[in-house]
């Protein structure tokens, strides 16, 4: 069974940056579109960004211009660089392997002064 583990979350002040990482086990990472979702308390899980197997990218409205998604197939890892963070970005961030349907356990991002 494919497993993925997120890291890089934490507490950051408004305007700060974080880089999230998600590393997956197994050899099928490169065959999957990799997605980052987030879920804030009391809200539905929201798709933030994804990167396709051919390195095409898509960003949700909240991420456009501030976040960058990238993948490194040699390391089975997808990254989410988040800049100019705001309190409304506070959420648990999850990575998802679209084709296999595998979810990570999530990493907490808190933006607060």
What's the topology here?
Blueprint: E1 4-7, E2 10-12, E3 18-24, E4 34-39, E5 46-51, E6 57-59, E7 67-72, E8 77-82, E9 91-97, E10 102-103, E11 107-111
Parallel strand pairs: 2-11
Antiparallel strand pairs: 1-3, 3-8, 4-5, 4-9, 5-6, 7-8, 9-10, 9-11
Question: Could you characterize the architecture of this molecule?
Answer:
It is a single chain. It contains no helices and 11 strands. The chain is mainly β. The chain is globular, with a radius of gyration of 13 Å. The mean pLDDT is 95. It is 0% helix and 49% strand. The strands form 2 sheets. Strands 2, 4, 5, 6, 9, 10 and 11 form a 7-stranded mixed beta sheet that branches. It has a 4-stranded antiparallel beta sheet with strand order 1-3-8-7, with no helix packed on it. The N and C termini lie far apart (40 Å).
Task: Summarize the model shown.
This protein is mainly beta and 113 residues long. It has no helices and eleven strands. It starts with a strand and ends with a strand.
